[in-house]
Specification:
The complex is a heterodimer.
Chain A lengths: L4 H30 L9 H10 L3 E4 L4 H20 L15 H21 L3 H32 L4 H9 L6 H18 L18 H4 L5 H26 L10 H28 L8 H18 L2
Helix pairs in contact in A: 1-3, 1-9, 1-10, 2-9, 3-4, 3-9, 4-5, 5-6, 5-7, 5-11, 7-9, 7-11, 9-10
Chain B lengths: L6 H20 L4 H29 L3 E6 L6 E6 L1 H24 L9 H20 L3 H19 L6 H32 L4 H7 L5 H19 L8 H7 L2 H26 L5 H23 L4 H28 L3 H36 L10 H4 L1 H14 L6 H14 L7 H33 L6 H4 L6 H19 L1 H13 L11 E2 L5 E3 L4 E3 L1 H22 L5 E4 L16 H11 L1 H4 L1 E9 L7 E10 L2 H21 L7 H22 L1
Antiparallel strand pairs in B: 1-2, 3-4, 4-5, 7-8
The chains are: A mainly alpha, B mainly alpha.
C-alpha cells in the first residue's frame, strides 16, 4: 500500500460514522413533512449524541459485563463493516474483509450481542425485543445472502468492491436479475434497519417495538453508542444498496477529483434512498408480527428467481 | 520425527488404553483410584494418539501394519493415511480435553455408580473410535464399529437407575444395529465384486461393479452411516441418547463419534468410489439441507440444555454433508479443484464442530452439575455465579453460530463458497439444488444464532429463575482448564485458518482422483482465496480489525466521558415488582419462530383450565402443555414397528416347540444347501 492512499483509507473508515446521524436526521425530517410537521433540524441526531455523551449513566444492577461491553463491540463492528464495503472508490478494494459473507456475518455478530444485551437486564421488554429481533434477523438472512449472491455471480466475484466495479461496467442486458435482487435486498434493508413495516423506529410502545425494546435500559454514553451504531447500520445498508446495485459514478482510482465526485454522488444516492424509505414509512402501516415472515420469504423467493436468471 | 508415526507408537497407544480400561476394572472398589487411573491413562493414550496422528498428517507419511488372524478374510490390518490421520487427530484432541474434564466431573458419581465400569467403557470407547477410523479391513472395521457401538451404549445407560437412560439406550441400541445391518450389506456387495474385504483391494477392483451394485452400495452405506451420523430422519436416537450419557461422554459422542459416520462416507464416496454418479452428490446435498434446517428448528423448540445441543449436532452434520455433497457433485463432473474445496470445507467443519460442540457439552455439564437440573427454564443469571464457564460457553455459542472471527465462521464460509460454485456452469437440476442448499445454509446460520441467543441468554443472563440457580457456584479448576483449552483451540483454529486449511489440502490431495489438487490459495495475512479470488477472506485481519476497532471506540469514549459517573439501579419495569417471572422464558423466546414454522414442526399445545364456578367464568388453575408432534414416530417408525411385529407374529407359526420339527428344519436346510452348492459348481 502506498502512502498516498492513507487519507483515502481514513475517509473510508470515518465516512459511515461521520455521516450516519445526518441521514437519520434527513429521514426524520422528510417523515415530519409528510405528517405536516416542520420537524427538527437534520443535524438533531448529532446534538442528541453530544447530549447523551455528556450525561451520567445508570446501569441495571442485574446486568452483567455483556450489557456493558455490547455497545462498544456493536459500534466497533459497524466500523469494521464500514471499512469493508465500497463507498467512494473501488480502488479501495479490501480483499481481506470485503467478502459479502464476511459483511453479512459481521452484521449477525452485532445482532447477536444486541439481543444478548436485551436479555441481560431481566426486564420484560428486553427479552421480547431480543426474541423478535432474532426472529426477523434469522428470516432475513436467506434473502440478504441470495440477493448479494446474485450480484456476485453476475460479476464473478464475491468481493463487494469487485462487484461494484463489475456491475458498473455492465450493459443493460443483465438488468432483470439485478432489479429482482434489488427488490429482495430492499426488503432485507427495511428488516435489518428496523424500519416499517417491520419495526417502528419512533415509538416506545411495547406492542410495536423491536430494536427500541432491546436498548430500553441503556442511558448516557452507552445509549449514544447503541443509537449511533444503529444509524451506522442504516447508512451501511443504504450504501450497499447504492453502490452495489447502482454503482454508476463510483471512482475506480484514487485521484482526488473522481473520489470527491463519487462522494457527492454517494450522498445524492443516499438522500434518494432516505426519501424513498421515508415515503414507504409514511404511506404504509406496520405489519402484524406474524405477517413479517411472508414478506421475508417473498424476499428469499425473489432472489432465488434472480439467481435462476443468471447464467 | 518419523518414528513418532510408526507402528510401535500406535501399539503403545493401544496398550495405554487397554491398561486404562482393565486397570479401571481392577480398581473398581476404590472410586478415587479408578477415576485417576482410567482418566489419566485416557489422557496419556489420547496424547500419544495426537502426536502419532499429528506427525503422520504433517509429514504426509502413510503407515500400514497389521496381523493376520486364524479366521479367513479377517485380518487386523491398520492403515493410517492422511484421511485416517486427520480423523484420528480430531478424536484424540477432543478426548484429551474430555478426559481432563472427567477427572473432576466423575466425582459426581462417587458412591452412586461404579467408577471402574465407567473408566473401562470410556477407554474402550475412545480406542474403538480410533480403530474405526484406522481399520483397513472391512471385517476388522465391523468389529471396531461394534465395540464402539456397545461401549457407547453402556455409557448411555450408565445412570441406569434413571428410566429415561434405559429407554434412550434401548432406542440407540436398536437404531445403531439396524444401521450396522446396512453397513454389512454394503461391505458384502463390495466383497461380491472384488472378492476381498481389504479396503485397498476393494478400491482397486470396485470399478468392475455394475451400476446397480454401485448404487446399492451408496444407498446402504448412506443409511448405515447416516444412522450413526444422525441425519434426519434416521436421527431419532440421537437427541435422547447423547444427553443421557455423562457430560464428558456426551461431548465425545456429539463431538466425534457421529463423525465416524462422516469418515466412512468420505472413505467410500470419495476414496473407494470417487466421482461415480451425479445423483449421489445431489442426494447428499438434499439430505444435508433438510438435516441442517430441521435440526436447528428442533433445537429451538428444546428447553433441555443437552437435548438442545444434541439437535445442533444434527444441524452441523447437515452442514458437513452440504460440503461433502458439493464435493461429490463436482467430483462427478470431474472439476477437481472444486471437489477438493467442498471436501476441505466438510473436513474443516468436522474439526470445528468437534471443538465447539465438545466445549458446549462440557459447559452444559458444569451448569447441570451446579444446578442439578437440565431444564433451561430453571437457570438464569449464572454469569454472576459461574463467570468463567459463562465466558467459555459464550465462545462456543459464537463459534457454533458461525460468528466471525471464530472458527465456525470460517468453515461455513468455505461451505458457502463451495456451494456458490455449483450454480453457474452445470445443468439446471444441479443449479436448483445448489441454490436451495445455499438458502437452507443461510437460514440455518440465522436460526442457530437465534437458538444460541436463547441458550446463552436464558441460561447465563438476567436474574436466577430458581433457587438452584441462585445457589450455583463455579466449577472446579480441572473442568475450567479443559474448557479453556477448547476455547483457545476455537480461537486458534479461527485465527490460523489459512494454515489449517493448508494442512487439510494434504488430506484432500490424498483422495483418489484429487492428487495434487489445490483447493485454495493462502496469501499474506493468512488470506484464503478460492477460485482465483472469487471469494477471499483473511481471518487474522477480521480478528485484528474487530479488536482494534473495539479498543479505539472504548478509548475515545472513555476520554470523551471521563467526567461522567456510572451508577447502578434496578431494572425499570413499569413500576411493578421485578420477579424472575417477568423475564422472558426459553419457550417464549422461541415461540414466534416455532409458530412460523408450524408447517414442519407441528407444535402441539393443550390447555387445561379448572374453574371456580359452573358457568366457567372464574378460572382457578390453568395449565398449558406445549410440545411437538413426533412426526417421525407417527409416520415412519410406528408403521415400521407394526409391520415388524406383524411379520414376527407370522414367523412364530414356524416355532412349534417340538424338537423333531427343528431337526426336520436342519435336515431341509442341509439338503437345500447341497443343491445350491451343486448349482454353483
Amino acid at each position: 500500500m502506498n502512502m498516498t492512499a492513507i487519507p483515502y483509507w481514513l475517509l473510508q473508515v470515518l465516512l459511515i460514522p461521520a455521516l450516519s446521524p445526518f441521514f437519520i436526521g434527513v429521514t426524520r425530517t422528510i417523515k415530519a413533512r409528510f405528517q405536516n410537521r416542520h420537524g427538527a433540524s437534520v443535524f438533531q441526531p448529532y446534538r442528541d449524541f453530544w447530549k447523551l455523551f455528556h450525561k451520567d449513566e445508570i446501569i441495571s444492577e442485574d446486568a452483567s459485563w455483556i450489557f456493558r461491553v455490547a455497545p462498544y463491540l456493536i459500534f466497533a463492528v459497524t466500523l469494521v463493516i464500514g471499512a469493508s464495503i465500497p463507498l467512494v472508490s473501488t480502488a479501495l478494494s479490501n480483499t481481506l474483509t470485503g467478502d459479502l459473507l464476511v459483511v453479512v456475518y459481521l452484521i449477525a455478530l452485532g445482532t447477536f450481542f444486541l439481543a444478548l444485551a436485551g436479555i441481560d437486564t431481566g426486564g420484560a421488554f428486553g427479552g421480547f425485543g431480543s426474541s423478535r429481533e432474532m426472529m426477523v434477523a434469522a428470516l432475513t438472512e436467506g434473502g440478504l445472502v441470495l440477493s448479494l449472491l446474485t450480484l456476485a455471480l453476475i460479476s464473478r466475484s464475491a468481493n463487494l468492491a469487485a462487484i461494484s466495479a463489475n456491475i458498473d461496467s455492465l450493459s443493460f442486458t443483465s438488468f432483470t436479475p439485478i432489479i429482482l435482487a434489488f427488490i429482495s435486498f430492499s426488503i432485507a434493508l427495511l428488516a435489518e434497519t428496523c424500519r416499517y413495516p417491520f419495526d417502528n423506529p419512533a415509538t416506545h410502545l411495547e406492542l410495536t417495538m423491536i430494536h427500541e425494546a432491546m436498548i430500553l435500559e441503556y442511558s448516557g454514553k452507552r445509549l449514544a453508542l447503541m443509537e449511533w451504531a444503529s444509524a451506522n447500520k442504516y447508512l451501511i445498508f443504504i450504501a450497499l444498496g447504492a453502490n452495489l446495485f447502482f454503482p454508476r459514478g463510483i471512482a475506480d482510482s484514487l485521484d482526488f477529483v473522481p473520489v470527491m465526485l463519487a462522494l457527492l454522488l454517494l450522498a445524492g444516492k443516499s438522500l434518494l434512498f432516505c426519501a424513498a424509505i421515508a415515503v414507504i414509512e409514511s404511506s404504509i402501516a406496520k405489519l402484524r408480527i406474524f405477517r413479517l415472515p411472508d414478506l421475508l420469504f417473498t424476499s428469499f423467493v425473489i432472489s432465488v428467481i434472480a439467481i435462476g436468471l443468471v447464467n | 520425527m518419523d518414528f513418532l508415526s510408526s507402528a510401535g507408537v500406535f501399539d503403545a497407544m493401544l496398550a495405554v488404553f487397554a491398561a486404562g480400561a482393565f486397570g479401571a476394572l481392577l480398581f473398581r472398589h476404590h472410586d478415587t483410584a479408578a477415576n485417576l487411573w482410567s482418566n489419566s491413562l485416557a489422557i496419556v493414550g489420547s496424547a500419544t494418539g495426537l502426536i502419532f496422528s499429528g506427525v503422520a498428517l504433517f509429514n504426509g507419511t502413510v503407515t500400514a501394519f497389521g496381523a493376520d488372524s486364524t479366521l479367513p478374510l479377517l485380518s487386523f490390518s491398520i492403515r493410517i493415511d492422511q484421511l485416517s490421520a486427520f480423523f484420528m487427530l480430531v478424536i484424540s484432541l477432543v478426548a484429551i480435553f474430555c478426559s481432563v474434564y472427567a477427572l473432576d466431573y466423575v466425582r459426581h458419581y462417587y458412591g452412586k455408580y461404579s467408577i471402574g465400569v465407567l473408566g473401562f467403557f470410556y477407554n474402550v470407547f475412545i480406542v474403538s473410535m480410533i480403530l474405526v477410523v484406522t481399520a483397513h479391513n472391512a471385517l476388522f472395521f465391523l468389529i471396531a464399529w461394534e465395540v464402539m457401538a456397545l461401549a457407547s451404549y453402556f455409557l448411555v445407560i450408565y445412570e441406569r437407575r434413571e428410566s429415561t437412560s434405559i429407554r434412550a439406550g434401548s432406542l440407540y441400541f436398536i437404531m445403531t444395529h439396524a444401521g450396522t445391518a446396512f453397513i454389512i450389506i454394503a461391505f458384502l456387495l463390495m466383497y461380491r465384486t472384488t472378492g476381498s474385504f481389504d479396503f485397498g483391494e476393494i478400491r482397486d477392483g470396485i470399478a468392475a461393479a455394475s451400476p446397480l451394485v454401485k448404487n446399492a452400495i451408496f444407498i446402504s452405506a448412506l443409511i448405515g452411516f447416516g444412522v450413526k451420523a444422525g441425519v434426519i430422519p434416521l436421527h431419532i436416537w440421537l437427541p435422547s441418547a447423547h444427553p443421557a450419557a455423562p457430560s464428558h461422554v456426551s461431548a465425545l459422542m456429539s463431538g466425534v463419534m457421529i463423525k465416524t459416520g462422516i469418515y466412512m462416507m468420505v472413505r467410500i464416496y470419495l476414496d473407494i468410489l470417487p466421482g461415480t454418479y451425479l445423483w449421489w452428490g445431489l442426494a447428499l446435498l438434499i439430505i444435508g439441507a433438510i438435516s441442517s434446517l430441521l435440526g436447528v428448528l428442533y433445537a429451538l423448540s428444546e428447553h433441555d440444555l443437552k437435548r438442545l445441543l444434541a439437535y445442533h449436532s444434527i444441524e452441523n452434520i447437515g452442514i458437513i454433508l452440504l460440503g461433502l455433497g458439493s464435493a461429490l457433485v463436482f467430483s462427478s463432473y470431474s472439476v477437481t479443484t472444486l471437489a477438493a474445496l467442498g471436501l476441505a470445507a466438510a473436513l474443516f467443519h468436522t474439526m470445528n464442530h468437534a471443538t465447539f460442540k465438545a466445549l458446549l457439552f462440557l459447559g452444559a455439564g458444569s451448569v447441570i452439575g451446579a444446578t442439578h437440573t437440565r431444564n433451561i427454564e430453571k437457570y438464569g443469571g449464572l454469569i454472576k455465579m459461574m463467570p468463567q464457564t459463562a465466558l467459555f460457553f459464550l465462545i462456543g455459542s459464537m463459534a457454533i453460530s458461525a460468528l466471525p472471527p471464530l472458527n465456525g465462521f470460517f468453515s461455513e464460509w468455505l461451505t458457502f463458497q463451495a456451494l456458490f460454485q455449483g450454480i453457474v456452469g452445470f445443468d439446471v437440476i444441479t443449479k436448483i439444488i445448489f441454490i436451495l442448499a445455499i438458502g437452507s445454509l443461510a437460514f440455518t446460520g440465522g436460526l442457530a444464532a437465534a437458538c444460541f441467543v436463547k441458550a446463552f441468554g436464558i441460561t447465563f443472563l438476567a436474574r436466577p429463575r430458581s433457587d438452584q440457580a441462585a445457589q450455583a457456584s463455579e466449577t472446579n479448576v480441572l473442568p475450567r482448564l479443559a474448557m479453556a483449552g477448547l476455547a483457545l483451540l476455537i480461537i486458534g483454529l479461527g485465527l490460523f485458518s489459512g494454515m489449517v486449511l493448508g494442512t487439510l489440502t494434504k488430506v484432500t490431495a490424498s483422495m483418489t482422483n484429487l492428487h495434487g489438487v489445490q483447493a485454495a490459495d493462502v496469501a499474506q495475512f493468512e488470506s484464503v482465496s478460492i477460485q482465483n479470488g472469487f471469494g477471499e477472506t483473511s481471518m487474522p485481519a477480521l480478528f485484528i480489525g474487530i479488536i482494534a476497532a473495539s479498543v479505539a471506540v472504548t478509548v475515545v469514549v472513555a476520554v470523551l466521558t471521563r467526567k461522567r459517573r456510572t451508577e447502578t439501579g434496578p431494572t425499570w419495569d413499569c413500576g411493578s415488582d421485578l420477579t424472575p417471572r417477568m423475564e422472558i422464558t426459553a419457550t417464549g423466546f422461541s415461540r414466534s419462530l416455532i409458530t412460523i414454522s408450524r408447517g414442519v414442526l407441528r407444535p402441539s399445545s393443550e390447555t387445561e383450565i379448572e374453574y371456580h364456578d359452573a358457568n366457567r367464568y372464574f378460572p382457578k388453575i390453568g395449565t398449558v402443555t406445549m410440545g411437538l408432534h413426533d412426526i417421525y414416530q407417527t409416520y415412519i417408525y410406528k408403521p415400521l414397528r407394526d409391520l415388524t411385529t406383524l411379520l414376527a407374529a407370522q414367523f412364530t407359526k414356524v416355532q412349534s416347540g417340538n424338537i423333531n420339527v427343528y431337526i426336520l428344519y436342519i435336515f431341509l436346510t442341509l439338503i437345500g444347501l447341497l443343491f445350491f452348492m451343486d448349482l454353483q459348481s
